[in-house]
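Lecture 7 notes: from sequence to structure.
We start with the chain below.
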Amino acid sequence: GGYKKNNMKKKIILIIDTEGEGALWGRVLFDNNLLIDSGKTVQQIERKMSKLLMDFHQLKQDNFAFEIQYDISGLFEDKSFLNASVVADRAGISRLMMRQYRTGNKFPTLEKLNKLEFAIKEMAEELKSIKLSKTKTKRA
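Predicted structure tokens for the same chain:
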């Protein structure tokens, strides 16, 4: 009980990362219990985590919603269309440092994480505003 507040679902943070073998890993910390599982997609991990939350905490799926957060490695594994070098350039972070973040050898500061997130969201806004020409005229 006590999970529904003003008809809002309880928000549970699900962090996505990777160990470089192509599989994605998800982790949830709930009531001091760390739940970890892997999958090929974020959706698959969400399903597995929902089952774990039900099995270990009797938490029904309609009582919560996942907030997906990405570790740098997980972001570029799951969103493979994102070019890490371009994101680094736009965020004002060296490509070498970005490689260190992606491999987990180094971890970005909060300031650098904010710069990366801002750069990615700025790119998303640019993509949302794209309009492709539908006219069939050819160049001479």
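Points to note: The mean pLDDT is 92. The beta strands are 10-18, 24-30, 33-39, 64-70.
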